[in-house]
Batch of 3 targets.
Target 1
Amino acid sequence: MERTASAVWNGGLKDGKGTVSTNSGVLNNTQYSFSTRFENGIGTNPEELIAAAHAGCFTMALSAQLGQANLTPESLETTAAVTFEKTDQGFTVTAIHLTTRAKVPGATSASFDTAAQNAKNGCPISRLFQGNTEISLDAKLV
């Protein structure tokens, strides 16, 4: 399986602009620029897209882990916060914090915590960053 996305950039770093698109069409010439990455400009940026990918990946993995425990979630809501800062090596994603709130009928705190930790450690996006980036998790049943 292969998924594709593309980027086009025109101009210099600070005055240029670009677009990102995905093969699925979900992103179609979506704007990004220096100001969307380092300031508060309108558009997206690579770190925001990483956060969306990680939130989605973790949430699906959590659903799978709960299913393996014979639990069906009513709802799972996850936010991923990506920390992007300048280090000695240059700008780097240094941390990702996942916050999830879940309604899972029949789940105990222990069964939910186990599923959440397994999902955090096992989802492909988490594994992509393991060893390079601190990944933390705040997962609670509501």
Note: The longest helix spans residues 46-68.
Target 2
Amino acid sequence: MANSAPTWILVFEWAARAVLLLLFALSIWSIAIIIDRRRALKQVEQEAGSDQIRAWISKGEFQSLSSWSSSGSGLKAKLVQTALSAPKNATSVEYAVKGYLTEQRIALSKGLPVLATLGSNAPFIGLFGTVLGIIQAFGALANQQSAMASVMGAISEALIATAVGLFVAIPAVVAYNYFSQRFKTLLAECETIRDTYLSRLPEA
């Protein structure tokens, strides 16, 4: 009799390997998003602190505030530019800044839903690959022509799928929580700057 494994065992073998390839592709995607979000965070954080900005506003030092914001390119600098360029009444400033913050919230959250999805689902993809590998291993074990070495190899590949799934999920979850919190904090600081500026303006 031929020593080749049954066709259905080969199908499960290739399916398990396809799952591994998928996980590696997802890990590259996750790393690319993490690098991109890190660059975005670094860009928006390169500026004066919220306390200094609110101090300028509270003291009415709008010339200093304008000079600083015109030379900046971060989140808070552009926020101040938006507020200063709006008509000098509370309603206009509020709507202008609200629109700006909404745009920035969308831009900063780019890619974060993907990280959240990978963090919650990559372990299940790895588990699926493990199940396929285990089925393949037991199928090979049931086949009298299969060597024990091939069975152990199949089990090893199956466990690797679970490990890779966790490797993809854990960094994705950590990065999602970190960036979500940092961006949320930055936007909250921008809102306090807006409210401080609005307190210096008359109602429309």
Note: Helices lie at 7-45, 50-58, 62-70, 75-85, 90-108, 112-142, 148-198.
Target 3
Amino acid sequence: MGIEVNTKLKIAKPVNEVFEAIVDPEKMANYWFSSGSARLEQDKTITLRYEEYDAQVELTVLEIQEDKKIAFKWGAPGDEHVVTITLSEVDDTTTIIEVNEKGWNENDDELISNLLGNKEGWVYMLTCLKGYLENGSTNLRAAIVF
């Protein structure tokens, strides 16, 4: 089964709005990465930039189910992780979003620290997404200090 990081949050917005905020790089720039090379679509490789941290990451989209699921892999070759974002419609105005990341090396000396760091990152990303969608806040992103 392997080690996984799971994070789940309720957002008071319709599922289609939550989905679009994740796959549309212009919307994503309001709460997560500062830019993306393209819309997230199945079988595409996308480059996401974090201008504030002078960093970028490439991800390959493995699966898209509109308004339901986004799965991608990212990380260095040989150390790739698979992230699955699942959207569940509670009603016309509420969505449960869950992020699952797996691919951790169980023999890594830094395993616990890496798991905690990633969990913290996903909680922060989802909190920023919630703030953006529910309250229009665009000033929460990139506030983590390393």
Note: The chain has a mean pLDDT of 93.
